[in-house]
């Protein structure tokens, strides 16, 4: 519930000066929200072990996508700074 409240606050307040930074933070919080909600599926709430196994791949995919996007943005910022 805390992550959901934080996403709502970030969306309404926009605490960062640049819009891209606010969007980046919303993306990271949204990814965290997806991963945390998927953790519920690893409990006895989902009795099918094959489904839990497949949901593990979904969680790995979401985390991998987040890492790739974060690395791409970091490399882009580093290259832009190096050129300046």
Outline of this structure?
With 84 residues, the protein is mainly α. It has helices at 2-13, 19-39, 49-83.
Helix content: over 70%
Ends distance: 42 Å
The stretches of 5 or more residues where confidence is low (pLDDT under 50) are none
The helix-and-strand class reads: mainly alpha
Structure annotation, total helices: 3
Average pLDDT for all residues: 90
Coarse morphology: flat
Radius of gyration: 16 Å
Percent of sequence in beta strands:
under 5%
Main sheet: strands, sense, barrel: none
Order of helices and strands: HHH
Strand tally: 0
Number of domains: 1
Task: Characterise this structure.
The longest helix has 35 residues, at 49-83. Helix 1 (2-13) runs antiparallel to helix 2 (19-39). The radius of gyration is 16 Å and the shape is flat. The chain has 84 residues and is mainly alpha-helical. The protein has one domain. The chain has helices at residues 2-13, 19-39, 49-83. The mean pLDDT is 90.
List keywords for this structure.
84 residues; mainly alpha; 3 helices; 81% helix
């Amino acid at each position: 519930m805390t992550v959901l409240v934080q996403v709502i606050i970030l969306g309404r307040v926009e605490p960062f000066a640049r819009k891209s930074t606010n969007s980046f933070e919303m993306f990271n919080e949204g990814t965290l929200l997806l991963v945390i909600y998927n953790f519920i599926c690893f409990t006895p709430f989902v009795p099918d072990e094959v489904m839990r196994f497949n949901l593990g791949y979904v969680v790995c995919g979401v985390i991998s996508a987040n890492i790739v996007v974060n690395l791409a943005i970091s490399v882009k910022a580093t290259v832009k700074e190096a050129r300046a």
